[in-house]
Structure formats: C-alpha cells, structure tokens
C-alpha cells in the first residue's frame, strides 16, 4: 500500500441563500464587519448584515496588490473591525485573506464566481509587478456561503473562464506529488461536474441546475487546491499574471489545455475541445502578450501565445503504469518501495520539465559519486546527508520515543569493528588538541543502568579530519569500542572535537557550492550503543557554543544533543529502549 496523508478542510461550507448571511456572521461572533465587494452584490449583503456592518471597501483588485491591502487595513483600524465578509470573485476573497494575514480577523466569504480560493490557505499577492504566493492557515476563511442565485447574472464569458480556472484546480490535483485517495475522489467529481456543466451554462446562463453543478464543482476543486501542492499550471499563471497584469481566470483558461498536453494527460484534447466551444480568449495573444514578452519563457507558452494546439504526446501516465506493473511479481515491500520511487521520479521529471541535458548532468553526478567512493570515502552517504535524506530516515527509523536519547545520522566515517579498548584509555593517543575527560552513563528508559553495552566512539582530530582521511596515521585513532561496566558507566580520555568541512572535492561539494551552502559540520563526537534486547542507538554529542550548530551541513544537530564540554569534561547520560519499543 502506498503511504499518504490527508487533512480535512476545516472551513464551514453552506449552500443556501444570501439571506442567511447575518446568521452566519453571528455564528462567528461578528458584530463589526468590514464588507468587501463591488456594489452590485455588496449592497444586498450590506442590507442583510444590518447593524453588524461597520465599514465597506468597494475596490478590491485583481492579484491582490499590496498597496490595496494597505488601504483596506487602514479602514479596518479606523472602524475597529472584528471580522471580514467578502462577496464577489477571487479579488474580494484575496483581499479578505490579505487582511486576515495581518490581523487574524475571521473571514466569511460569499463567492459569486467559481474561483475556489475561498476554500484554501493560499494567498497570492502582487508587489512591484511580481506575484508571489504563500500558504498559511492564517488566511484560510472560517466559513463560505454559496448562493447559486448570485451566479445567474454572471456573464457567460466570465463564467466560462472562471469555470476553467476551477477545473485547473482539479486537474492539477490529479498529478500532484502529494495526491491521495481522497483528493483523487474530489478531483474526479469536480472534473465531472465542471466538464458537464460548462457547456450547459454557455448554452443557457439561467440554467439553475447547471449553475449549481458549477458551484459544487468549484467547491470540490477548491478543496483539492488546499489539500495538495499545485504544479506547473499555477506557477505559470501566477508568473504571467504578476509580471504582465493578465486577468486571472482568463489566463488559467487559456493555459490549462496546453499544460495538460505538456503533462501528457490523456484528456487534454477534451479540454481543448471544451475551451474551443466557449466564448473565452483562446491564446495569450488575445490577452495582449507578444513574442517579445515571452523571450526566454517555456515553449508551451509560445504555443499558447498563438493558440496552436500541440500534437498529442505519448501518455506519460501509461509509461509510468507500465513500469509499475513490471513490479507485480516482487515481494510486497519491494513492490511498494519501487512503485513509490518510480511514481515520484516520473512525477519529478514531468513537474520540472526535465531536459535531456539536465538528466545527463544528474547521471554524471551519480557516476562521479560512484567513482570517488571508497571504503574510507562514502560520497553517496555524503549526498544523502547533505540533502537531509539521512536525517529523515534517522527520524523515521530511530527516534520513536521521547523517552530515549535522540538519535543522529551515522555519517560517512564509521568503520566496522573498531578496536576493543579498556576504560580510561586515551583514544587520542597523543594527538594534539584540548584534552577531554569523558564520563558516560547508559541507562534504560526506567533509568536503570545498562551494563555490558557495546559503545563505539569516533570523532575528528583538532583539524577536522578522521583517521581514515589521514594516510600518515598508522591504525585507528580517535576511534574505539568500549563496554559499560556493571554500573552502566564508561570513562575515557580524548580531545575536544572541532568543526570541520565534509569532503568537498567531489560532486557533493559541487552541489553545495552551486547553491551557496557551506560544507561545515558542527563539532561533535559520534556514539553507537548496542546490546542484545535493546534498540541500537546511533547518535552524536555536539559542543555547546560550537560553530555551525544552526547550519550543520547534514542537518544533524538536535537540541537534546547539544552538551556543555566546559572545563575539559563531557558528562552525559544516554537512555536506550528495549528492542520492542
């Protein structure tokens, strides 16, 4: 079974009448409401709100410009507002969200289009010609009131563009990296409702049943929009909208079938045909863009510029399914791992529009990582460490209970079978550095000592090198295997570890340099504690006050592992759990 997670949308959704707006505001405890919306609908909403209405803002703007938000916030402050009611399309909803971001005021949204943003914790804002989005629960509305009657006068062209915008939410949910069975169901039903209702609304704008299906489809699609990560379609639309001030819904409507075709979706032609039948713009040129505007932009935007329908590509979903089906005979766990891996890799390649050159470069990185790897230089572990994968696996595998000492990554410099060493020994063997007396206690989760536990210890020298990196060192040094005594204690001498750079002369170093990251690890000592009947603990102790604690390049530092090494002493109690814990 493929793992997934799903969090239900907490927004209260009501399909009913605007006449209940006052009751819904009362449910939220609102007594001094700011009403956002154009007069055509806002006048009626104001009448329903009655004495709850404290102020109005009649001028929301497309793409939520920050300067408009600033004006609205002044109105909020001047009238001691305790909540926001927005009636209209995405512009009104966006402004309500922006106000909530700054004030935490509750929101009640009355949509008059099919935008769907009323269901989400996503806010898009525009500043200096650039649109950015952020996702935070602070902007998710508390309640939504749908009244199909408010959509009956919506012009067909706007209805069609807004409906295709809603359809885009459902479509992108079908190939989102975090899609799950629930969003699959929501997206499928949203697509069915919208694809069926859009032609009916275009043919008869007064068709109440068709309008109701549109609203239900927009609601379900908006729920998808909040539950999963939107992909290339929304990224492109937000980019173009912010840069060129293009109308939001129309941009979505134009680009949707092109992105679907680019993604290899089997129903892309159905959406092309649907869009062609609707009274909407069918190219970016109709929205005012030119060839010069798209210089350096993706090829699919050039196709959309002139409304040129691309040739249908081979189905990438079919290819992914073919690969996954080839694992049918594998053991269940192997099949699960490979299926998820292939679906994730294929999805990554599709979402990022991976080029042949980029693929070849990535293969080259892996090839060079293999060539540079030896018994003493584990480049693949370094790659896993610096991408945080090792820490993820560490948490999933080892950090199962708060009653034990936190685990940490193994790192690339562990060597099997370090030399058995008596207690009290100096594992530095005379190497220069600040002397450190180490006094360790190992207990179980009931604080009872654990005798005869095998404790492997390894660390770097004062210059940041491990023994396996030093060709002139004869035999293991700063590396040993101890056993706890009858009281669960372990004592030995060493030197204070130093911060050090991981090996940066290979592919991992190139990656860090390319993204502007340093290669340094915070100073630490490694421990591996094992005994039959107990879960093995792999961890590290970090020097309090040491460098790079907040930017350790392998993301290995945990607060519970930062220890005072003052006065050349290290004292620490490790708590380990039984193997069944």
Automatic annotation (TrEMBL):
Gene3D superfamilies: 3.40.50.1970, Aromatic compound dioxygenase, Dehydroquinate synthase-like - alpha domain. The keyword Ubl conjugation does not apply. Residues 160-263 form the Fe-containing alcohol dehydrogenase-like C-terminal domain. Residues 10-147 form the Alcohol dehydrogenase iron-type/glycerol dehydrogenase GldA domain. Keywords: Dioxygenase, Iron, Metal-binding, Oxidoreductase. Its cofactor is Fe(3+). Residues 411-567 form the Intradiol ring-cleavage dioxygenases domain. CDD domains: MAR. Residues 332-401 form the Catechol dioxygenase N-terminal domain. GO terms for molecular function: catechol 1,2-dioxygenase activity; ferric iron binding; maleylacetate reductase activity. Belongs to the intradiol ring-cleavage dioxygenase family. This is Maleylacetate reductase and hydroxyquinol 1,2-dioxygenase domain-containing protein. It comes from Amycolatopsis iheyensis.
